[in-house]
TrEMBL record:
It comes from Linum tenue. It is a multi-pass membrane protein. The keyword Calcium applies. Keywords: Calcium, Coiled coil, Ion channel, Ion transport, Membrane, Transmembrane, Transmembrane helix, Transport. Residues 232-301 form a coiled coil. Belongs to the CSC1 (TC 1.A.17) family. It is found in: Membrane. Residues 188-344 form the CSC1/OSCA1-like cytosolic domain. GO terms for cellular component: plasma membrane. The chain crosses the membrane at residues 6-27, 97-116, 145-165, 354-378, 450-470, 549-579, 599-624. Residues 5-167 form the CSC1/OSCA1-like N-terminal transmembrane domain. It comes from the Eukaryota. This is CSC1-like protein HYP1.
Length: 714
């Protein structure tokens, strides 16, 4: 890809970004768009609309940038939770890394690359040259200037490791501080017990009570056995759909009462529809209650239960100790938040979960192989000669300058991004099949899958298909990996710069403008007459956003000394992303659950992998550049990085798995003086009751259509 094609891609995306950010600055001030740009505020209180037109509403304003910037980390933690803080810390960490790396790369490495003469450069025809002239490929073989790149690799590795340690320590302290400052939470007093042994004539509930009363007499408080409620959930879901239909029918009927045609009886059928829906709703309510009463039978119980204790320490002891003589029975694991539970996973047996995970692995491999098809297509677009070979009838069109620049500079990364939009929901669906008990664990698993899928299919597949596609035996001969990567990676620098601009900058502009949600809001507003429908506040999809950020970090780390021209584009992305997502977390997204920062170990592991990949490529590139001493002296770098990773794993990972005894005991002692602990224990007994088992009452005769569908009666 030549420089002019890259400039065309950057220009197109800059125009789109400016358009979307200007659109957001105008539309966010319109009161009728609050459901899109500030659903968190709408959900908490009803906004008052002005009754007159204000010309200032049509003027773009950047006040939201100042407000997003001024919010402190403590306030963000209070409003959106520790997971949101960790997400923003990824941008902070990446901005610091690439601010330092960008300064070294642009002011030190780029001039060294530019002044080399390994490649023939005609400076008067620079826009039509490949960007390899700004990469390490332009440095002469055996040149002493390569020692500058060698030194930069060591300095950059040291900076990244220091910042990684700082962030890991900062977030772990935040996690402990959040635990100490939080009020008593049911999940800290509760564990999940699976594999409850069955005995004839005794229910699982009786078995759990007898076992924990005998073995944990001083700390055991209560338990809640899980039941098979899939049928009830299906009925409740049908009832929710029917209630919305009934609400719309009532709304339309009330609007037509004041019409003159109503006197002629032309809309009598509407009243009939309302009565029909009400009757069906009563039938569903009766079916739900019948199914709930049938769950009292023993055969409807699942060999799993939530067991609650009188103290956090009592729950921790039961969690970490083997409970029964048979290690396959009385299995314990940490209880998720009540709002985070994935209830349908309890019904799956151990064998079913084991088979499901094998199926998921096979499905992920198959998806990875199938994704090579769009990758090959993208590489064909990036190579005009190959594209003309495939489609000779396009030769005349491709000879046009503007067409060739758009095809080679913009379309490849755009097409790849469109295919990538399908990956996160597919991976989330596959992770849900693995039988995780919580939605957060499912999303963490999907996050890891999307990350490694992206690294393999976007980085390695593009690199190898674009420069060494037929060398499929690269991983069969490990000693050749540094050499092959060193030959292949620098040639794809321009494609990845275009990818950062297309996938990164444009994604941020579409994120802030919420164009899809805005259009959907207008469409549903046209076809729906019920203005009082409850606004659903979305959650931030960590499983798709975190892998994207980490992949950009991998690109920056890998190309730091190879093609430092990519670093300013990445730094701009991280800085804009920092402001954009702070605004979204405060106004748009609302946390549905809290993992207390457990996404950060994924960030740490991905960064370590990026450093190791950079080191492997450095070993190969110095060998190709006929500087064997530098290649040899680079070998300690990955070893030192792995030792650093092992230290961090032993130092910090245990804090992200379980809370230490010192913190638990201290918190238990503090809670002994709380005046409302008796009330908390009363709520703890029913905290993990399946929502499908709660008595329900349908609000049929309530004139307010904004009232909830189901009113729980405990």
């Amino acid at each position: 890809m030549i420089l002019s094609a890259l400039l065309t891609s950057v220009g197109i995306n800059l125009g789109l970004c400016f358009l979307f950010f200007t659109l957001y600055s105008v539309l966010r001030k319109q009161p009728w768009n609050s459901a899109v740009y500030a659903p968190r505020q709408i959900a908490k209180e009803e906004e008052e609309e002005d009754g007159f037109f204000n010309f200032d509403m049509l003027l773009p304003s950047a006040g939201w940038v100042r407000r997003a910037w001024q919010v402190s980390e403590d306030e963000l933690l209070c409003r959106s939770g520790l997971d949101a803080v960790v997400f923003i810390r990824i941008f902070v960490f990446s901005s610091r890394v690439f601010a330092i790396g960008g300064a070294i790369g642009i002011f030190v490495l780029l001039p060294v690359n530019y002044l080399g003469n390994q490649l023939s450069i005609d400076f008067y025809d620079l826009p039509n040259k490949n960007l390899e002239t700004f990469s390490i490929s332009n440095v002469n073989d055996g040149s002493n200037w390569l020692w500058v790149h060698f030194s930069a690799a060591y300095i950059f590795t040291g900076v990244v490791c220091y910042l990684l340690y700082y962030e890991y320590n900062h977030i772990s302290l935040r996690r402990i501080a959040s635990f100490h400052s939080s009020p008593p939470q049911p999940r800290h007093y509760t564990i999940v017990v699976r594999g409850i042994p069955s005995s004839e004539g005794r229910s699982f509930s009786e078995a759990v009570q007898a076992f924990f009363t005998d073995n944990h007499p001083s700390t055991y408080l209560s338990h809640m056995v899980v039941h098979r409620t899939s049928k009830i959930r299906s009925l409740i879901k049908d009832a929710e759909k029917l209630y919305r239909t009934l609400a719309r029918a009532k709304s339309q009927s009330s609007q037509q009462i004041n019409k003159k045609d109503r006197l002629l009886g032309l809309f009598q059928g509407r009243d009939t529809d309302v009565s029909h829906y009400e009757q069906k709703l009563e039938d569903l309510e009766r079916n739900v209650r019948t199914e709930q009463h049938s769950l009292t039978e023993i055969h409807q119980e699942v060999p799993a239960a939530f067991v609650s204790f009188k103290s956090r320490f009592g729950a921790a002891v039961a969690l970490h100790m083997q409970q029964g003589l048979d290690p396959t029975e009385w299995l314990t694991e940490e209880a998720p938040e009540p709002r985070d539970i994935h209830w349908s996973s309890f019904s799956s047996s151990f064998m079913k979960r084991w088979i499901s995970r094998i199926v998921v692995v096979v499905a992920c491999v198959a998806l990875t192989i199938l994704f090579l098809i769009p990758v090959v297509l993208v590489q064909g677009l990036a190579n005009l000669e190959q594209l003309e070979t495939w489609f000779p009838f396009l030769k005349g069109i491709l000879d046009l300058t503007i067409v060739s620049q758009i095809v080679t500079g913009y379309l490849p990364s755009l097409i790849l991004q469109l295919f990538l939009y399908l990956v996160p929901p597919v991976m989330l669906m596959l992770s849900s099949m693995e039988g995780y008990l919580s939605s957060s664990s499912t999303e963490k698993s999907a996050c890891t899958k999307v990350l490694w899928f992206t690294i393999w299919n976007i980085f390695f597949a593009n690199v190898l298909s674009g420069s060494a596609f037929y060398q499929v035996n690269i991983f069969l001969e490990p000693k050749n990996i540094p050499k092959i990567l060193a030959e292949a990676v620098p040639g794809q620098a321009t494609f990845f710069i275009s990818y950062v601009v297309t996938s990164g900058w444009t994604k941020l502009s579409s994120e802030i403008s919420q164009l899809t949600s805005l259009l959907w809001s207008y469409v549903t507003g046209v076809f729906s007459s019920n203005d009082d429908e409850e606004i659903e506040v979305p959650k931030l999809p960590y499983h798709s956003e975190i892998p994207r950020i980490l992949f950009f970090g991998l690109l920056g780390t890998t190309y730091f000394f190879l093609a430092p021209l990519i670093l300013p584009f990445l730094l701009i992305y991280f800085c804009i992303g920092y402001i954009t997502f702070r605004n979204q977390l405060l106004n748009v997204y609302e946390p549905k659950y809290e993992t207390n920062g457990r996404f950060w170990p994924i960030v740490h592991g991905s960064t370590i992998f990026s450093l190791i990949l950079m080191h492997v490529i450095a070993i190969g590139i110095f060998g190709l550049k006929k500087l064997p001493l530098a290649s040899t002296l680079t070998v300690p770098l990955p070893i030192l990085t792995l030792l650093f990773n092992e230290y961090c794993r032993r130092r910090f990972v245990p804090l992200f798995q379980y809370y230490p005894t010192e913190s638990i005991v201290k918190k238990d002692k503090e809670d002994q003086n709380r005046p409302n602990m008796a009330e908390f224990y009363d709520k703890l007994v029913t905290a993990y009751r399946d929502p499908a088992l709660l008595p329900v009452q349908y609000a049929r005769n309530n004139s307010s259509l904004s009232s909830p569908l189901l009113q729980s009666q405990v």
